[in-house]
Amino acid sequence: MRYSRPCLTLALCLCWLGAAATPTSETEWMALMLEGQKTGWLKSVRTVHEDRVEHEETVHIALRRSGVAIELTTVDRTVETREGRPLSFSSVQEIAGGSMRVEGEVDTEGNATVRTISGGSEQTQEFTWPAGALLPEGLRLATLAHGLEPGTTFTTSAFIASSLQAADVEVRVVGPERVDLFGVEMDLTRTEQVMDLGTTTTTVVGWVDEDLSAKKMEFSIMGMTLETIACPEDCALAEAQPAEFFTQAFASAPRSLSERMLDDGLEYILRPTGEIAIHFPTGSEQAAQALDDGTFRVRVDPGTTRRPATIPEASPYLGQTRWLQSQAPEVMALLAQAGGVTDDPVETMHRLEAFVRDYVSDKNLSVGYATALETARSRSGDCTEHALLLAALGRSAGIPTRVATGLAYVENWLGARNVFVPHAWTQALIDGRWVSFDAALYGFDAGHLALSFGDGDPWNFYDGVNTLGNFEIVSIEALPE
């Protein structure tokens, strides 16, 4: 499971809030730092024409995932009127060999048409532009309108092109501070931007000059600190030192877990390790409760027959998406190859689970983030590729599915003993409850802690990104009778 790409999206969004206010084309370079190591760069270009304003944001980041090098590049382009009305947007992501392009146009009535190209497959969709959602120029104008007087607070909405979603952002102006930018000290204004990510929030601290040009940003991701710092081009493009981010999200188990315990169910006591609010969802197999002492009790029962209070509607989990190309000919062919559909959806999902486990023959950590269709063609990847392909095959079979992300217990991971590692698996809606299937490991058990659910879009991982790396496991016991 990866959280890097949503992290980049957030950095871009908040960089827009501090874009330079110049009537001519201007370029801003920034170095990306993760835990104090230079791990990439950001380039921002704003160009003003007679009737429109164009923004282009490019981010390149190099990381290591359990020692395996991963490179990610994102290029976002937007076109708006001089008054900040959205006209068009595009987002291109290149992640360790995989790619996705999103191109959209917005008419004067607020109707948006989007074309998505990934793995040679093209999809077109229409949606209504989110009310009040702004692109870079609109965000810049909103910031200008409120000014930088200490104590100023306002809320706006930022549209994220890569995920086709809007996120509410509360901006707070703290006041002047002297900031060190690689040895150059500047008097800047500190701001705090709180982004609503659904079940949780993320706070980004930014420092801007009097022209509202962002010179530094800082926020926490998976228990680590990500910074963007303004500097000359040669500084930004200097050789990177890829940081190891995957192992930072590991959670040590206080004891080894037997196969019987994993099969029968477990009760966890989890303690936050910082001031960031963390979240554990409740579902058919997992029940979470916040306790009075600040800890959380989470019970995972892989064999539960408990039903949710409200049975979810199946239709949102049946259709093809940008990440789950369930109607693509290659995916439909794999459904037939796996043996097709049986009368029992549980049996069908177990059959597809075993098929995907064998079909993804090149199991490695070098794939950045692949769609179901890309995995169907490459037969390569790790847990995320297994989960997305299985979810797409389930939808091809007419079974509602979604992707769960969180942590999974392993006895040994590259020398680390008894640890929970970031993981993704598949859930199918059967008889009114979500039932989990794991094609990357040998099935679902109580060693899975879910943090978020979605359709495979990395944006959905944000629900759990604050929890990763920010808690410890106090105890693990067998479920009480």
Low-confidence stretches: 1-12, 16-22
Number of strands: 27
Binned, the helix content reads 10-25%
Structural class: alpha+beta
The number of helices is 9
Q: How much of the sequence is in beta strands?
A: over 45%
Largest sheet, in brief, is: 16 strands, mixed
**What best-fitting shape do the alpha-carbon axes yield?**
globular
What does this molecule look like?
With 481 residues, the protein is of the alpha+beta class. 17% of the residues lie in helices and 46% in strands. The protein has helices spanning 4-16, 136-146, 233-236, 259-264, 329-337, 345-359, 372-378, 383-396, 462-465, and strands spanning 26-34, 37-48, 52-65, 68-81, 86-95, 98-106, 111-118, 121-128, 133-134, 153-160, 165-181, 184-196, 201-208, 214-221, 224-230, 243-244, 251-252, 266-272, 286-290, 296-300, 362-363, 380-381, 401-413, 416-430, 433-437, 448-454, 471-478. It has a 16-stranded mixed beta sheet that branches. β13 (201-208) and β14 (214-221) form a beta hairpin. The longest helix has 15 residues, at 345-359. The protein is globular, with a radius of gyration of 23 Å. The model is unreliable at 1-12 and 16-22 (pLDDT under 50).
